[in-house]
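Just curious. Protein, please.
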Amino acid sequence: MKSVMTRDSIHPVDSAARLRMEKMLAKQRSCLAPFLFNGYRFRALRPVIRALLGRFEGGIMISQTWRRILRRFEEVELGTFSRGAGIQPGLFPAGTKIGNFSSFAAGFQVLRRNHPPGRFSQHPLFFNRVLGLISRDAIPEKKTNPLIIGSDVWVGMNVIICPGCHTIGNGAIIGAGAVVTRDIPPFTIVGGNPARPIRKRFSPEVEAAVAASEWWLRPLPEILAHVDLFTQDITDESLQKFAATFPPRATGDGRQ
C-alpha cells in the first residue's frame, strides 16, 4: 500500500507540525557530514562533533551521520527516529540493533556479561584480561550476546538491561527503574526488580492489527498522511480505520 500525501489528508491541527517536520528532515545530512564522520575517529574531537550534529543535523533523532557513526565506530544499528537522553556514546555494546521510533529515557544501562558465579572465584582478576593476570578474557565477549530492541519501544528512566535479556519486542514498555533479566514479549508493559509483566499494552484485537501493520517500517509521508490515527486514544472507529489504512505489509516488499 502506498498513500499519496495531500494537504487535505493531513489532520488540520497538525498541518503546521508537518511543515516543521519536513523542514527538520531536510537537515538529516548536512554539508559537514563527511568532516564530522571522518573526524569522529579522533576521540578528542568527539564531544565537539556530537554538539555539531545536534546543531546542524537535528541530533540523534534524525541525523543520518549519527547513524553512520554508530554503525562504523560502535557496530550499533539505530533505527529511524529512535531517540532519547538514554542513548549515549559507548552505551550499547557491539551487535546491538534498535528498531524505529523507539525512545530511551536518561540513566539507561545495558549489561552484556556478568561475573561467573559457578567458579571458585567470581573476581574479575580471574576472567578480565584488563586486570593483567590473564592474556585473554575467560568469559565470552560482549558481542557474543547482542541485544535486539524492537520498534516503538519506550524505556523509562534508570532502566538496567541484564545479560539474560536478549530481545525487547516491538511496542514494549519498560517502567522506570526496572531491572530486566529476561526477554520482553512485544506490546508488553513490564516493571520492577526483577522486571515482571504488568499487563499487555493492547487488547488482542488491537495488538494483532498493529503488529501486522508494521507501521514503523513505512515511509514517513505515508504515516503523516494519517497522523490523526497517532494523536488520539484508540477507539473502535479508529481501529477500523487504522486496519484499513495500514493493512498487513507484503512480505519482501523491500522496506527496512
Summary: Residues 15-25 form the longest helix (11 residues). The CA atoms of residues 55 and 137 lie 40 Å apart. DSSP finds seven helices and twelve strands in the chain.
